[in-house]
Amino acid sequence: MTELYAIIEQVMAEAGRAPASELTPATTLRKQLGFDSLELAVLTVRIEAEFGVDVFADGLVDTIGELQAKLDAKGTGAC
Amino acid sequence: MAKLLFIDDAADVADSYEQLWRDVEKHAELTPTIEFVDCYDFFVALLAAIARDVSVALMPNGEVGECLRWDGRSLGERSGVNRDASLGSGSSSGLGLSSGLGLSLRATIEWLRESEAELGVMTSGSTGAPKLVWHGMDSLTRGVRLGDEHTNDVWGLAYHPAHFAGLQVFFQALANQNSLVRLFGLEADAIHRAIDQHHVTHLSATPTFLNLLCSGNKSNSHASVKRITTGGERLPTALIHRITALFPNAKLTNIYASTETGSLLVADGETFTVPLELQGRIKIIDGELAVHQSLLAKSIQTNATLLGDGDYFLTGDRVELIDVINSAHTDAEQPIGNNPLRFRFLGRRQDEINVGGFKVNPLEVEELLLAMDEVAGARVYGRANSVTGYLVACDLVLQPKQSLSTLQLRERLAPQMASYKIPRIVNIVDKLPTTYSGKQDRLN
Prior knowledge:
Chain A has helices at residues 2-14, 37-51, 64-73. Chain A is an all-alpha fold.
């Protein structure tokens, strides 16, 4: 999960946002972190570049835990 | 000392005109294609084909040439000995080249134009698969200028010699017996050295090539260069300022030219005006520049599949009319009254990036990036993703000792453009990819 958190924090930093006080598997990307569609697009591009998995390919996901599940299902070994 | 034809410091080569004509006369081994390996050998084979009225396809080396070799059908249809089929391997041509042509400029250009040879030239491949376009010698030499004022011109050869623009530079130099200095395919430092060392006076190059020269070179200027012709891509205003600083004595001409059309129009800054003699043969159809078939290369004139409605070739270049009134017609705007058609280029239609249904012109973004002091070169493109279809991404070459973060870039661009146009993925790179013709490569 650490690598995934790092990517999320990078996307937030590049957007000029303050770091989140806490990231957990239950944290929601839109409601809690305030990601808009362009930031979600950046997130999926960065994750794909890192792990080779398009996490939004079969529909949108909402929580960090759901993102991790997509990576786990592809056997990326991301943690 | 014999007049030098071609100078290549990288290969330690200096070939003379005298030798050239002797070698052309001896060169009797004619092939349907001329593959570029060595510049001088390429020029000899090219002139030998022209001398014998033999049509040949010109193949650049590397990947692009490999790509075209698969298209054997289009090569075979055109190539072959036209006038003197008796010429074969090893025969002496008896063309009298070394005794006459090397001496008379007028004879050289007439000799070129009288040839029935057609040359197959590849398009640049900057925005699509490269294709072969056949030109007669009249269209290839249409822009050649002769005269005493050109006697001491020294040309920098910034284009690949097998490219349409490279051939035009070669014929211009040949017709005036000027020297050609190899600049294409070199690193910026070597290009700067060659321009100074050989006192290059004339340059014809893409905006991408000129931007490469201007990058990271704030202290030097090239006083010897008197004339620069550029084209093939949009010329951003920020780059015009950089070129003027680097070449303080040069007159800069921006032309519209392509392998399909040859050189057609000359711009004042970014604004192109259609001259009276071309009115009606160049028009705007649905925001795209369209050129009448009478102005096209021979092989396009006769290829109905490449022509749009009404015998006009759609160039794929999106343009914006200047001084226009809007009309109800689908052909968009018309010039006001009897004013000539004036327009500026917006970019290639197929380069547009679709971000969640909003269209982004990458050249508009590149122009703002290039206006930043930190940025030496910029390439903007779409990055596919499953959320918005595409995102705007960019590769940046920074000026020496400069840095620029993604956040800084976004904050600087935010007041100037809509949020969806601002690059979200920013890569800092050492250099940007170019096609063999020296344009920015938008495919790879």
